[in-house]
């Protein structure tokens, strides 16, 4: 029962973070789940893999409603979406397989270094030069593959990289966010399936797991996040963009350092 309460509280944080910062939730879910799984007696390797995999499974639900809303609002760049998704799906599935083969502590270090790099990018972001255009489809697919692999390895939806990439190509921010939301659903599904396949037959997994996906955590987090995401979105609309960017960067540094320290 106490574990379920933790999952619900994590879901509240995921929903707020998703609405406030536009993140899929993995940056919050993975650090929260790790100590919970450790307290349940899971080994470091298994705990990290289950945390990353379960994070991806929660992203499927939390981003689906966002993608649907953006589709209705016309905030999706249709010409780029198929090429981006094709690379993201392949990369995310491959990233899950790579993550499953990497020791848990090494994956923690990769995760920590990754989010600190994101923090630096957030802090140093500047104006996009005028005249930028969408690269050719093969380039978009290739970039999608790289982003998907990273997302699959560290258990995030990929929005932290998709949005900056689209903005760099000249896509206006609201459409970059909408296209990212639609893409994230596919990334999370592919990554989730990848971790299910990779975890088949793995010893030491908790009950109620399918591969590396631990359903009690997924259910508790998604249930709470659905209700708190709108509140986060309202908060985001009232805060200056500069404040949001710096707050997000500070949050990433804290999470990254915690993961690096272990």
UniProtKB/TrEMBL annotation:
Pfam families to which the protein is assigned, alphabetical: TauE
Keyword Zinc in annotation: no
GO cellular component labels: plasma membrane
Compartments where found: Cell membrane; Membrane
InterPro entries named in the record: TM_pro_TauE-like (IPR002781)
Location, primary (coarse class): membrane
Protein name: Probable membrane transporter protein
Organism encoding this protein: Spiribacter salinus
């Amino acid at each position: 029962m106490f574990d379920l309460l933790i999952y619900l509280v994590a879901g509240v944080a995921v929903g707020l973070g998703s609405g406030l910062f536009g993140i899929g939730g993995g940056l919050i879910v993975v650090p929260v789940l790790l100590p919970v799984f450790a307290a349940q007696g899971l080994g470091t390797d298994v705990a990290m893999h289950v945390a990353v995999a379960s994070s991806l499974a929660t992203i499927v639900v939390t981003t689906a409603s966002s993608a649907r809303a953006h589709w209705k609002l016309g905030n999706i760049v249709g010409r780029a979406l198929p090429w981006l998704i094709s690379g993201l799906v392949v990369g995310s599935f491959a990233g899950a397989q790579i993550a499953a083969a990497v020791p848990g502590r090494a994956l923690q270090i990769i995760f920590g270094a990754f989010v600190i790099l994101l923090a630096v990018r957030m802090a140093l972001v500047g104006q996009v030069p005028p005249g930028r255009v969408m690269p050719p489809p093969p380039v978009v697919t290739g970039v999608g593959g790289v982003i998907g692999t990273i997302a699959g390895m560290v258990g995030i939806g990929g929005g932290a990289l998709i949005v900056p990439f689209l903005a760099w190509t000249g896509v206006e921010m609201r459409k970059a966010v909408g296209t990212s939301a639609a893409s994230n659903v596919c990334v999370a599904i592919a990554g989730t399936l990848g971790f299910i396949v990779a975890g088949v037959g793995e010893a030491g997994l908790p009950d109620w797991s399918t591969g590396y996906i631990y359903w009690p955590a997924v259910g508790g987090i998604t249930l709470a996040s659905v209700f708190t995401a709108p509140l986060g979105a309202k908060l985001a609309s009232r805060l200056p963009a500069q404040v949001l960017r710096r707050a997000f960067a500070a949050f990433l540094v804290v999470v990254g350092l915690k993961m690096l320290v272990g």
